Amino acid sequence: MSRAGTLSGVTSGAVSGLDGGVLRTVSADGLEALVSSVPDEAFSSEGMKAQMEDLKRLEEIARGHHAVVEAAYGATTILPLRLATVCLSDERVAAMVHERHGEFAELLSWLEGHVELGVKVYADPHRPAEAQPPNAPGSAAPASPGRAYLQQRRAQRRNQQDAYRAAGDLAAEVPGRVADVARARAPHRPQQGELASSPGENIANDAYLVPAARVGEFRRALDTLAGDTPGVRIEVTGPWAPYSFATPPAVAQGGSQ
Length: 257
Fold this sequence. Notes:
alpha+beta, three-stranded antiparallel β-sheet, 7 strands
Protein backbone atom coordinates (compact mmCIF):
# COMPACT_ATOMS: atom_id res chain seq x y z
CA MET A 1 0.00 0.00 0.00
CA SER A 2 1.35 3.45 -0.93
CA ARG A 3 0.33 6.83 -2.25
CA ALA A 4 -0.98 6.74 -5.83
CA GLY A 5 1.53 7.13 -8.64
CA THR A 6 4.62 6.01 -6.70
CA LEU A 7 4.88 2.37 -7.76
CA SER A 8 5.14 2.57 -11.56
CA GLY A 9 8.76 1.40 -11.48
CA VAL A 10 7.82 -1.72 -9.52
CA THR A 11 5.20 -2.78 -12.10
CA SER A 12 7.63 -2.41 -15.04
CA GLY A 13 8.63 -6.09 -14.89
CA ALA A 14 11.80 -5.94 -12.81
CA VAL A 15 10.07 -7.98 -10.11
CA SER A 16 7.09 -10.32 -10.40
CA GLY A 17 4.30 -11.45 -8.14
CA LEU A 18 3.77 -14.91 -6.72
CA ASP A 19 4.73 -17.71 -9.15
CA GLY A 20 5.74 -15.15 -11.78
CA GLY A 21 2.44 -13.28 -11.76
CA VAL A 22 2.34 -9.81 -13.30
CA LEU A 23 2.22 -6.96 -10.78
CA ARG A 24 -0.27 -4.13 -11.20
CA THR A 25 -1.70 -1.36 -9.06
CA VAL A 26 -5.27 -0.80 -7.89
CA SER A 27 -5.98 2.82 -6.93
CA ALA A 28 -8.63 4.46 -4.77
CA ASP A 29 -8.82 7.84 -3.05
CA GLY A 30 -5.21 8.81 -3.73
CA LEU A 31 -3.75 5.52 -2.51
CA GLU A 32 -2.77 2.38 -4.41
CA ALA A 33 -2.26 -1.29 -3.65
CA LEU A 34 0.25 -3.48 -5.46
CA VAL A 35 -1.42 -6.78 -6.46
CA SER A 36 -1.07 -9.84 -8.66
CA SER A 37 -3.61 -12.53 -9.57
CA VAL A 38 -3.54 -16.00 -8.00
CA PRO A 39 -5.63 -19.15 -8.68
CA ASP A 40 -8.91 -19.23 -6.77
CA GLU A 41 -8.59 -22.90 -5.84
CA ALA A 42 -5.07 -22.52 -4.44
CA PHE A 43 -5.99 -19.48 -2.35
CA SER A 44 -9.42 -20.45 -1.09
CA SER A 45 -9.68 -21.13 2.65
CA GLU A 46 -8.83 -24.82 2.19
CA GLY A 47 -6.17 -24.17 -0.44
CA MET A 48 -4.50 -21.53 1.69
CA LYS A 49 -4.48 -23.83 4.73
CA ALA A 50 -2.77 -26.56 2.71
CA GLN A 51 -0.11 -24.17 1.44
CA MET A 52 0.60 -22.77 4.89
CA GLU A 53 1.16 -26.30 6.18
CA ASP A 54 3.66 -27.09 3.40
CA LEU A 55 6.92 -25.60 4.69
CA LYS A 56 8.62 -25.60 1.29
CA ARG A 57 5.66 -23.86 -0.35
CA LEU A 58 5.34 -21.44 2.55
CA GLU A 59 8.98 -20.48 2.10
CA GLU A 60 8.39 -19.85 -1.63
CA ILE A 61 5.42 -17.60 -0.86
CA ALA A 62 7.33 -15.75 1.86
CA ARG A 63 10.34 -15.15 -0.38
CA GLY A 64 8.16 -13.90 -3.23
CA HIS A 65 6.22 -11.59 -0.92
CA HIS A 66 9.43 -10.24 0.59
CA ALA A 67 10.95 -9.54 -2.84
CA VAL A 68 7.92 -7.47 -3.88
CA VAL A 69 7.83 -5.58 -0.57
CA GLU A 70 11.54 -4.75 -0.79
CA ALA A 71 11.17 -3.52 -4.38
CA ALA A 72 8.26 -1.28 -3.39
CA TYR A 73 10.08 -0.11 -0.27
CA GLY A 74 12.99 0.99 -2.48
CA ALA A 75 10.63 3.23 -4.44
CA THR A 76 8.45 4.90 -1.81
CA THR A 77 6.95 4.77 1.68
CA ILE A 78 4.77 1.65 1.91
CA LEU A 79 2.52 -0.29 4.24
CA PRO A 80 3.48 -3.96 3.89
CA LEU A 81 0.38 -6.14 4.27
CA ARG A 82 0.39 -9.59 5.82
CA LEU A 83 1.77 -12.52 3.88
CA ALA A 84 -0.82 -13.87 1.39
CA THR A 85 -3.40 -11.14 1.97
CA VAL A 86 -6.15 -12.12 -0.47
CA CYS A 87 -9.16 -10.27 -1.98
CA LEU A 88 -11.82 -11.63 -4.34
CA SER A 89 -11.19 -9.08 -7.11
CA ASP A 90 -9.61 -5.74 -7.96
CA GLU A 91 -12.94 -4.13 -7.06
CA ARG A 92 -12.71 -5.64 -3.58
CA VAL A 93 -9.16 -4.33 -3.26
CA ALA A 94 -10.35 -0.83 -4.20
CA ALA A 95 -13.24 -1.09 -1.73
CA MET A 96 -10.84 -2.15 1.03
CA VAL A 97 -8.55 0.82 0.27
CA HIS A 98 -11.56 3.17 0.30
CA GLU A 99 -12.91 1.78 3.57
CA ARG A 100 -9.54 1.97 5.34
CA HIS A 101 -8.33 5.16 3.66
CA GLY A 102 -8.07 7.18 6.87
CA GLU A 103 -6.08 4.49 8.66
CA PHE A 104 -3.77 3.88 5.70
CA ALA A 105 -3.11 7.58 5.06
CA GLU A 106 -2.32 8.20 8.72
CA LEU A 107 0.09 5.25 8.85
CA LEU A 108 1.85 6.34 5.67
CA SER A 109 2.39 9.79 7.13
CA TRP A 110 3.66 8.28 10.38
CA LEU A 111 6.12 5.98 8.59
CA GLU A 112 7.39 8.58 6.12
CA GLY A 113 11.18 8.76 6.28
CA HIS A 114 11.49 5.84 8.72
CA VAL A 115 12.88 2.30 8.52
CA GLU A 116 12.70 -0.77 10.70
CA LEU A 117 15.76 -2.11 12.54
CA GLY A 118 15.85 -5.41 14.40
CA VAL A 119 17.71 -5.94 17.68
CA LYS A 120 18.39 -9.49 18.85
CA VAL A 121 20.14 -10.40 22.11
CA TYR A 122 21.73 -13.84 22.35
CA ALA A 123 23.01 -15.92 25.25
CA ASP A 124 25.35 -18.81 24.52
CA PRO A 125 24.42 -21.61 26.95
CA HIS A 126 27.14 -23.85 25.52
CA ARG A 127 30.06 -21.54 26.24
CA PRO A 128 32.78 -23.85 27.56
CA ALA A 129 34.11 -23.39 31.04
CA GLU A 130 37.61 -22.00 31.30
CA ALA A 131 39.77 -24.83 32.51
CA GLN A 132 42.81 -24.22 34.67
CA PRO A 133 45.95 -25.52 32.97
CA PRO A 134 47.22 -28.77 34.51
CA ASN A 135 49.99 -28.29 37.08
CA ALA A 136 49.54 -24.49 36.94
CA PRO A 137 51.31 -22.62 39.76
CA GLY A 138 49.18 -22.70 42.88
CA SER A 139 46.80 -25.33 41.49
CA ALA A 140 45.62 -28.18 43.63
CA ALA A 141 46.71 -31.72 43.08
CA PRO A 142 45.18 -33.35 39.99
CA ALA A 143 41.64 -34.53 40.68
CA SER A 144 40.38 -37.98 39.86
CA PRO A 145 38.61 -38.29 36.47
CA GLY A 146 35.21 -38.45 38.15
CA ARG A 147 35.84 -35.41 40.35
CA ALA A 148 37.28 -33.45 37.39
CA TYR A 149 34.15 -34.20 35.35
CA LEU A 150 31.87 -32.94 38.15
CA GLN A 151 33.94 -29.78 38.53
CA GLN A 152 33.71 -29.13 34.82
CA ARG A 153 29.94 -29.63 34.84
CA ARG A 154 29.54 -27.17 37.75
CA ALA A 155 31.63 -24.61 35.89
CA GLN A 156 29.52 -25.06 32.75
CA ARG A 157 26.30 -24.55 34.73
CA ARG A 158 27.70 -21.38 36.29
CA ASN A 159 28.66 -20.09 32.84
CA GLN A 160 25.19 -20.86 31.49
CA GLN A 161 23.48 -19.08 34.37
CA ASP A 162 25.82 -16.10 34.07
CA ALA A 163 25.22 -15.85 30.30
CA TYR A 164 21.40 -15.95 30.64
CA ARG A 165 21.44 -13.42 33.47
CA ALA A 166 23.75 -11.05 31.60
CA ALA A 167 21.76 -11.39 28.37
CA GLY A 168 18.54 -10.56 30.21
CA ASP A 169 20.13 -7.52 31.83
CA LEU A 170 21.44 -6.25 28.49
CA ALA A 171 18.10 -6.83 26.76
CA ALA A 172 16.40 -4.72 29.44
CA GLU A 173 18.93 -1.94 28.85
CA VAL A 174 18.48 -1.69 25.06
CA PRO A 175 15.23 0.39 24.99
CA GLY A 176 16.77 3.06 27.20
CA ARG A 177 19.92 3.23 25.09
CA VAL A 178 17.97 4.00 21.90
CA ALA A 179 15.06 5.97 23.38
CA ASP A 180 16.28 9.25 21.90
CA VAL A 181 16.64 7.73 18.41
CA ALA A 182 13.79 5.25 17.97
CA ARG A 183 10.22 6.41 17.39
CA ALA A 184 8.58 3.13 18.41
CA ARG A 185 9.38 -0.41 19.54
CA ALA A 186 7.61 -3.68 18.71
CA PRO A 187 8.63 -6.76 20.74
CA HIS A 188 8.57 -10.11 18.93
CA ARG A 189 8.81 -13.67 20.16
CA PRO A 190 12.45 -14.83 20.41
CA GLN A 191 13.48 -17.01 17.48
CA GLN A 192 13.93 -20.69 18.22
CA GLY A 193 14.51 -23.93 16.33
CA GLU A 194 14.74 -23.57 12.54
CA LEU A 195 13.93 -19.85 12.76
CA ALA A 196 17.10 -19.17 14.76
CA SER A 197 19.80 -18.07 12.33
CA SER A 198 22.65 -17.43 14.78
CA PRO A 199 24.49 -19.49 17.41
CA GLY A 200 23.34 -19.25 21.00
CA GLU A 201 19.82 -18.76 22.33
CA ASN A 202 17.78 -15.74 21.29
CA ILE A 203 16.72 -13.99 24.51
CA ALA A 204 15.17 -10.84 23.01
CA ASN A 205 13.91 -10.07 19.50
CA ASP A 206 12.60 -6.52 19.08
CA ALA A 207 11.90 -4.21 16.14
CA TYR A 208 12.44 -0.45 16.26
CA LEU A 209 11.07 2.30 14.03
CA VAL A 210 13.97 4.65 13.32
CA PRO A 211 14.37 7.76 11.14
CA ALA A 212 16.33 6.70 8.06
CA ALA A 213 18.79 9.53 8.64
CA ARG A 214 19.60 8.24 12.16
CA VAL A 215 20.33 4.56 11.49
CA GLY A 216 24.04 5.06 12.14
CA GLU A 217 23.29 6.82 15.43
CA PHE A 218 21.05 3.92 16.48
CA ARG A 219 23.77 1.37 15.75
CA ARG A 220 26.42 3.37 17.60
CA ALA A 221 24.18 3.54 20.67
CA LEU A 222 24.39 -0.26 20.92
CA ASP A 223 27.94 -0.84 19.64
CA THR A 224 29.55 -1.13 23.07
CA LEU A 225 26.59 -2.45 25.08
CA ALA A 226 27.64 -6.10 25.06
CA GLY A 227 31.31 -5.18 25.43
CA ASP A 228 33.33 -8.09 26.75
CA THR A 229 30.41 -9.75 28.54
CA PRO A 230 31.12 -13.49 28.18
CA GLY A 231 28.50 -15.49 26.32
CA VAL A 232 26.35 -12.50 25.27
CA ARG A 233 25.95 -10.94 21.84
CA ILE A 234 23.76 -8.17 20.39
CA GLU A 235 22.85 -8.23 16.70
CA VAL A 236 21.32 -5.26 14.85
CA THR A 237 19.66 -6.09 11.50
CA GLY A 238 18.18 -3.94 8.75
CA PRO A 239 17.18 -1.43 7.64
CA TRP A 240 13.95 -3.06 6.48
CA ALA A 241 10.54 -1.99 5.30
CA PRO A 242 8.48 -1.28 8.46
CA TYR A 243 6.62 -4.61 8.65
CA SER A 244 6.20 -4.42 12.42
CA PHE A 245 4.59 -0.98 12.39
CA ALA A 246 2.02 -1.32 9.58
CA THR A 247 -1.39 -2.53 10.73
CA PRO A 248 -2.79 -4.84 8.01
CA PRO A 249 -6.52 -4.98 7.23
CA ALA A 250 -8.86 -7.92 7.63
CA VAL A 251 -9.97 -9.00 4.15
CA ALA A 252 -12.00 -11.72 2.44
CA GLN A 253 -10.57 -14.80 0.73
CA GLY A 254 -10.10 -15.57 -2.98
CA GLY A 255 -8.92 -13.85 -6.20
CA SER A 256 -6.16 -11.23 -6.12
CA GLN A 257 -3.18 -11.15 -3.76
